[in-house]
Amino acid sequence: MLTPDMLHRTATPSQTETVSNRRARLVYDALMDQPGSAGSLSLSRQYLEDQLQQAAGLPCDLPLRPEAILGWMEHQAIATGDRYAAYLDSRKAGQPRRYFSCKSHALAFLQRVAPTKLVDGSWLYGVLDKWNDRRFYGLIRTYLEELGDGIPAQNHVVLYQRLLAEEGCETLPEFSDEHYLQGAVQLALGYHAEEFMPELIGYNLGYEQLPLHLLITAFELNELDIDPYYFTLHVTIDNAATGHARKAVQSVLDTMPGVGDKRAFLKRVANGYRLNDLGIGTLDVIEAFDLESDLVDMFERKRAFGQQMHSDFCRIGGRTVNEWLSRPGNIPDFLQALEERGWIKRHEDPRNSRFWQLIDGPDAQMFGVFTGFEKQLLRDWIAGDWFGNAGSTATAGGRATAFRPRARRRAVSNDVPSVQAHKAGDLDQELVELQRTLRELPTQARMQRLAELMAPASHSSAAGLLATRLFTAALG
Ligand SMILES: [Fe+2]
Ligand SMILES: [Fe+2]
Questions:
Q1: Which residue has the higher pLDDT, 23 or 401?
Q2: How many CA within 13 A on the CB side of residue 243?
Q3: Ligand 1 center–CA 69 separation, angstroms
Q4: CA of 316 to the centre of ligand 2 (A)
Q5: Confidence of residue 414 (pLDDT cuts 50, 70, 90)
Q6: Which ligand lies nearest to the CA atom of residue 231 in the structure?
Q7: What number is the average pLDDT over the span 370-399?
Q8: Ligand 2 center from residue 146 Cα (angstroms)
Q9: Same domain, 70 and 208
């Protein structure tokens, strides 16, 4: 891993540009892989300072009068509800989906926001140290709820991991550094809570408000037969009446200095709030999708592995498949050759295409070569207009009547490893050991050890989930 020291040592002018273009990713990886190292901490601290400086130049709608914050939050929640009602009306009137043109578009979105979703809640990690201070109770409760109170079926990171896996999306391609910015900011806040507490509280206030895009995303995922539970869960858990949005406001009020400069505190809160606006936004991510170029990129990524794997028996457009795949940049012409020679019949049921038959189904010659997401990309590209006509209900617009998310198709197990009835499995044994060690520690040391296990990179493991349940119980 690169540390700030190494950055200085290895950087030449051109390398500086490359390294600085990857800063978010470096911070993200440093705090996920080696959060305790001095290098990770100084790298992320500097990064957070720089982001706060950037944020300071952005506009901000947060009122700087404490008595106005609750009303501001409620007003925002009502306005979001109104805009969502207008969206539903437009759908009932026959408008097409607003966000996702097809299923692979939605899956690409799930992948591109994954770096943020897979560290959900992490900005609150550092408040666990305040378990003995009632002013931080709301923030700690929010973190515990992000972790599902240690129940895997309610742990937001586990839920997102399972959503990706369910849709064959778990192998993430390389994204630009911007896709890691929010995750890096969240982790940095989590690891520098003591020094940046007002900014953390402000970031939390912004992040926990219910945005319109969450509601529309949940609606359209459901329409595309993708489990929307992760998103609907956030609609309910972040609610303005009693949920995280409300707790976020209360936390600003609870932690405000009784004596001293309230305005200076609120200015720092507002700057943390602005951090939410840095980086690539949800709508930018959605708009960046282009089916054809995503398809070409996907084939280009696979090309390196497939270039020697095909027999030379079959020639397409005068070249063997191995020849087509032998160097970068051939994929668009290869796809065109497949179309011209009748291997792919676009704007028809994909099952009519010989190329699709090679890929889909248990007897297909290339069975297992493409992930669920990659197959969906190809399927959507081949089907094209056919989906809009007789093809698939999954992309037909204007069938919105009301938002009634289907029952979750695959229940996520609520099972947690039993520490009492262990059957001498290594994992269970490890948890029993851990629980025994914890029992022997005095309260302060025990809470600290539990908090260590509840770090962003480990809270979704068996030990992290156990620690979360014990911490939750101890907090009462
Ligand atoms: Fe969450
Ligand atoms: Fe939340």
A1: 23
A2: 17
A3: 22
A4: 52
A5: low
A6: 1
A7: 74
A8: 6
A9: yes
Task: For residues 205 and 250, state if they share a domain.
Answer: yes
pTM score of the predicted model: 0.89
Q: Are residues 296 and 309 in the same domain?
A: yes
Closest ligand to the CA of 148: 1
Its domain, for residue 453, covers 426-475
CATH of the domain at 264: 1.20.910
Q: How far is the CA of 152 from the centre of ligand 1 (A)?
A: 13
15-49 as b/e, with b when 16 or more CB fall inside 10 Å?
Answer: eeeebeebbbbbbbbbbbeebeeebbbebbbebbe
Phi, psi dihedral angles at 293 (to 5 degrees): -70, -30
Distance linking the first and last C-alpha atoms of the chain: 40
Residue type, 260: G
Q: Is 70 exceeded by the pLDDT of residue 464?
A: yes
Residues 144 and 229 in one domain: yes
Q: Establish if 404 belongs to a structural domain.
A: no
For the chain, what is the domain count? 4
Task: Say which ligand is closest to the CA of 121.
Answer: 1
Question: Do 199 and 278 fall into the same domain?
Answer: yes
CA of 245 to the centre of ligand 1 (A): 12
Can you tell me the mean pLDDT for 444-465?
A: 96
pLDDT at 420 (0 to 100): 42
